[in-house]
Amino acid sequence: MVMIEPIKLSDIRSGDRIDLAASDEERDAIVDQLALVSLARFEAHAVLEREGERVAATGRVKAEAAQECVATGQPVRETIDEPFTLVFLPVPPVEAEEEVELGADEMDVIFHDGARIDLGAALIDTLSLSLDPYPRSAEADAAMKEAGILSEEEAGPFGALAALKDKMQRDS
Length: 172
Description:
The protein is α+β, with helices and mostly antiparallel strands. The chain is about 30% helix and about 35% strand. The chain has 5 helices and 7 strands; from the N terminus they run ββαβββββαααα. It has helices at about 25-35, 120-130, 140-145, 150-155, 155-170; strands at about 5-10, 15-20, 40-50, 55-70, 75-90, 110, 115. The protein has a 5-stranded mixed beta sheet, with helices on one face. It has a two-stranded antiparallel sheet with strand order 1-7. The longest helix is centred in the C-terminal third of the chain and has 15 residues, at about 155-170. The N and C termini lie far apart (about 65 Å).
């Protein structure tokens, strides 16, 4: 699945704007890749800035997605409207066992092969990171309670103290 073919560095000019809208077929492939229930819309725009082999892409990802609720399995719809800034740099030369460390300000760095950038794959990754990691339907709390799973409040220290107080009152 390719939402956009990798872009040759030699074809990128600073100020280039790219507008993308995934086709039905591309959205179906993204649904499979990200294990979504559905993806009704996936669009993005980006403005590219190039300095030598460094390319920055700044823009916005918009999507209408549905994921399974972590408790009930029911579809949970989500609207994504996320700004992004991605920096594409050539793969740094490394020694055989040397690690590459990225600082906090470099977390949106994507390495490229020196010839082209894969903006489409980076935008799918951006969508993936924008989705709720624990989608919950309106029925999630009831389903979890029925399964005997404590809420965050009940499992926390104050919840444990409240349970102990209740137990002590019942025992007296």
